[in-house]
């Protein structure tokens, strides 16, 4: 046992998040939004201020918007619309051979955007502060010292089975080594901060947390992962890449488009335009000095590092300078000139591809993000998949902690996110090989074909969760073939609901439905009742559904003491013309009054043209027949969980489905 | 002369703004944005927190967006899309007779929105702080005591001819009387704060300002207007209206749409849905107690008030309660029920229609907003026209103060804004008569026809400035018939440029052009060169224009020492397909490098489909022939000033036009 001097503070907490990168921040944002007692710690004394990840893919942008953070992106980020491909001609001179759309047109309202990771973390910090009304914020610099799970408490929902000892560092010892800060040669070294490196650091104080759940969002060198004895399987490749953020001076005509440039003999480069005048270049380095004790034997005296490097020779990153990276870039850019008005940041990395052999222990301690999977930054996925990991996980923990669901839903985290990690590594492997290959060795058409095929995957909008307690579809289906009910042909079950336009019935205002599906923790039942104004049978169905939803046995009522606090929200989406609709005849279940008798006007939608927008098109977009309709269950993360007929029988099926994991409130 | 004790602080300031309502804030925002030495004072100790104006019309929304404040509106405001008209049927029961679009579909990207005036003022306060880097903010509570213009200094641009003595009040004496704050019966009385009322207030300190320019944005009872001896001509009508902000409990089906309801015998009501659950009701009061000493003889002992009331009997507003207003509303709403969950604010007013007989004195002291014109709130215009007044005025003063233009442009303020005020009063008179008229007396179809006709006017997007130094078109044209050059048929000269979609050439990103025309003080020359990729003559024109613009004699260079600080910006908008365009061949005038040689990529646009947006349509929207093109001058307020051919001759014409009011920089 851990010695506990009387002066050490000891607290209970429902959830402890270790690590305030994108995965940790996303989890904290969910917990703050859902009112969960959570704390988040980080070993660094401040947010990062330059470099690191910078690409926000469309699905991540949807998540930011769903938490009300979208306007920051609009204001600050660079948005990508086109991608160019340059290849050497017969004389070895690079030529533009193709221009393609960036991403997949129409897959999302948002195009892939680029902004410094530190800005994103700041937005999250603001959201956490706002949602928690100031009670939650990242506590730093704090280092975890030990983690123990008490097996005897695992089956008790009220217990705190995980004990973590934390040590508060002095600010100075925890400053990350960033460009211009500590490292003289300008090389950015990811702050390791593991126990070996930090053993000698003086602690200002210690604190013991007893937690119901712990999330390890502590990066590629995850301390949590090591405590759990989880193996990070995979290897480091030979490829070494330099990354540099510059304000360029160039006659290259596509410097504000994303570009892939393959040169004949000088390697490859990726051009990523960023906010303001900045451009990021990823450059394959062909001449790299290696550490003297190569082949797995590190000279640093740090066995962890050697293990992380796998079997490959380790590049000596300290020998790689901004000048060397830029020189390599200039060779590839020829005959175009490339000078630099300002160098903002640079680093070098050797690509490692690894995946953790478990994402959790005892369904009490979870790891997410880089702690689960590492890969190259080529597809711009790292930060995105990390955020999406905890976007998947945190609402489930929140439901369990709040006593709304049984813990049985937690197993879906690893099931769902491991599949994504595997797909990502597989795509990354193909991409890295093609990208590093010299023209002639790999077909450049093959290269573009892989990128084409991967475009939808990299948007994050096609992530397809398999059959489970939270995804009601046949099991054993292939992940890359979407499965839909014939009732809603374009709403594949397991995939996030695509966006579509409706108007609010009460005021005729056009909306993208996503705007009305904020991440607030609600499961949602969307009743697409069809053209009930013209079809009496549908109107009868609507009335019957309304009656059922008002009963104590309905999912709207039985999981809550007060209806207005129901974790499940019902929305009605019809497609009848206005003259056939009478507001007073809509069932009250879809326009409920709160305890002050104030009506909620915002749950009834119509698919019909607005005076101001002719393109309202929800039913067609979703592939729903206006004479039949559909009832669709959405999870709190927006993924389609279940599709049934919009009848009492269908609604009863949904009612039974919720019973599998929801817990009735004590008042019911 | 004013006695100046040694202890009184004395300062010079380029511009002093008196009054921090919408007009004053808009002026301050412009000055902060353009780097003008300005100060803004207000007599109230805090921003208003409830009530007052709340409607933002489309043009006002465009202005807020142009200062980067649009996201606040998106986040907080209620947006109107539909308007309903209720009239009594033969049995006297109110029925919906029509539903119309709110505003004019397509006239702007933004629909009329509703948000409490205090929020808007807060957004402005934030913008001023940001633009001025913290150096400008509203100074309060401060009351002006005297204003003098020194005629001997009027002709000197460097002089400070206006002397204002200010007195700083204690916070308590300046608290506005608002609902729940001071007034026991809940009646809101506009804080008068003029000298009569404030004569006895103790001053904490005094300060003397010597200003080049003074703006009186001090409301309907403008102190500045009185100092200038300007007459506020017009009269108060008999109509008394109550206004109340409530959270309603009702079965009225259109409570979230804007409604006009005419009852048979109980008067009229306007329903304005607001942010959150709030709804504002404007109710015609049929039974109103009048002050005992009516007909211009006030019992308040305040002769100013009596004068303001004109010849009409003055309603005793203190007798009008929230209950009385609500009761009147309930009668009109019948057979629908109307209860109240919460009453947030209410007031009553007697409609006055007045216009100042001058908007300035010596072109050194100007008045704007309510100080120039008062009218009923029916068309939702007060705050909007007030903001648009100073949006018109302040950039002109900024140009003069910065020594960039001659003072001769200042006369266009009164010319342009008096016309708007006159149109507004004329519309308001018609509307008020129709609205107050009982069914049977006025045709309800006539009523709706007037509203239809007024819709475009009330959006603010069709404001048409007449021929002047800053609007180059034939004089004597009727204001209500737009005048366009055949080169740009849908860009009427004198009206703000409508919005249209283009892509940025450098990255293929779709934009609404308005997004690239922020209010930053620039005049802009938009060169629509046409399809120069296919038409050699246009390509030759482009090159010649590029050459001219790079010469010292061009308007881009001669009014500035450093080209990158030119007050005039040139933008190129072509319509050639990408494969016929070579970035390296665009003249450098449209992709200039700054002193660090960093290129500005954002001034070249194309009208061609984007991968992500098929609806790019700028040339068609503007009515410009792709084989001819046009060159269009925009003023800093976005109004079209001049249209010529996109040839060297056309550009030379523009060059000569700028000479009429611009001042060459000393370095040229």
TrEMBL record, chains A, B:
Q: Which residues form the FAD-binding domain?
A: 13-425
User: What are the record keywords, sorted?
Assistant: FAD, Flavoprotein, Oxidoreductase
Output compositional bias ranges, type Basic and acidic residues.
304-314
Q: Which InterPro entries match?
A: FAD-bd (IPR002938), FAD/NAD-bd_sf (IPR036188), Phe_hydrox_C_dim_dom (IPR012941), PHOX_C_sf (IPR038220), RIFMO-like (IPR050641), Thioredoxin-like_sf (IPR036249)
**Which superkingdom?**
Eukaryota
What family does the database annotate? Belongs to the PheA/TfdB FAD monooxygenase family.
The family database entries (PANTHER family) matched by this protein are listed as: 2-MONOOXYGENASE, PUTATIVE (AFU_ORTHOLOGUE AFUA_1G13660)-RELATED (PTHR43004:SF20), TRK SYSTEM POTASSIUM UPTAKE PROTEIN (PTHR43004)
Please give the name of this protein: Phenol 2-monooxygenase
Please name the source species. Answer: Helicocarpus griseus UAMH5409
